[in-house]
Amino acid sequence: GEHDILDVPADLQQLKKVFETIEPGSSLRLDEFLSQAKYNYEVGMRELIHKPGLSLSEFADISLITEMIRMNIFQSMSKHIRNFFTHEKIINLMEFPVLFLGETAENIPSLYSLMNYADIVLGTWYPMGGMYEIIKAMVSLAEEKGVKIRYSSEVKSINIVNDSVKTLHLVSGEEIVADVVVATADYHHVDQHLVDPGHRNYDNNYWDTRVLAPSCLLFYLGINKKLTNLRHHNLFFDEPLGPHADAIYTNPRWPDKPLFYVCVPSITDPTVAPDGMENVFILIPVAPGLVDTEETREKYYDKIMKRLETVTKQEIRSCVIFKKSYAHEDFLSDYNAYKGNAYGLANTLLQTAIFKPKVKNKTVNNLYYAGQLTVPGPGIPPCLISGGIVAKLLKAEHNL
């Protein structure tokens, strides 16, 4: 409810004390849960996440199979969490990260408790100056290594001759000769719109039957005063999780009473807002493929801001001096994101590892794919790892 506020500390020992006040005995069970989650994380990072997922033979190793059995990959996250905790508040807290994996906790393998370990034990980190600082650093490093980055150079088609990419045809009319192409744009867009039908990895039916992770309705706000009763990261569970999850995964629709996340980075980083002001980012996970209109965005802005003001006990809307919304149509226009998704494919068991879209084109010998729709999956770190996987393949197969 609106008066039920839980301050979740970053320190594990402090978090255990909070758990104990909610559910006596849960601090010991949290240790047990995190011990299993640590095992999943370490095995996942060491043995699974860097595999290209091209063949089942990659996993044909007795020690790896033994480790995967111990990881209990066929049990759901929902059941796994309930093996340790009974209080709904703790269960919601532990299940919330799963919401972005693309399915309900009932349909996500308990393997992904590794996310809880990363979040709780390894911690959540923030680059001072904002996430764009990571991009700037990557650009600087790439250019230092001799990479030439072309901006505003949209590809219209990938021209293939004798099962080999020869050129990229740009919207501008320019042709770029290519020895090897690594497509990191939306996989569906590349597969269905840039490659000719005879060289596509998948057909429309394949893509239509994929289970997608959520899209998002985002609001970027500039506030001309300092806010109270908020932290850098804020999760609003003042409405039940079940109906919202149902609106994302089971019966796709705009949710009636959505849960949402509020980030106020200016609390931590004074460089992202002028003195005496706040930088606020609001995220509502929603189903992909919904009809996205300005009217709908405004409706949800009013809903969320009313709840935000009620829970934090302060007037905010009258202090908004900058506002920008971002949703399905923006993901489509800016990234060609399939159905306006924001997080790629759902991490269900049948869309994990070898069951994801392949990093290599099946018939074109110099066309590869990386990004959130292939292995290992969505999120910034997995996308970077995806690039590393393809880089190793290029080195092995093209001597680059």
Short note summarizing the structure:
Pfam families: Amino_oxidase. The protein is of the alpha+beta class. Helices cover 37% and strands 14% of the residues.
Commentary on this structure:
This protein is of the alpha+beta class and 400 residues long. It folds into three domains: 111 residues, no CATH class; 136 residues, 3-Layer(bba) Sandwich (FAD/NAD(P)-binding domain), CATH 3.50.50; 121 residues. The protein is 37% helix and 14% strand. The chain has a five-stranded antiparallel β-sheet. The chain has a three-stranded antiparallel β-sheet with strand order 1-2-3, with helices on one face. A two-stranded parallel ribbon has the order 4-10. Helix 1 crosses helix 2 and helix 2 packs across helix 6. The chain is globular. The relative contact order is 0.14. It holds the Pfam family Amino_oxidase.
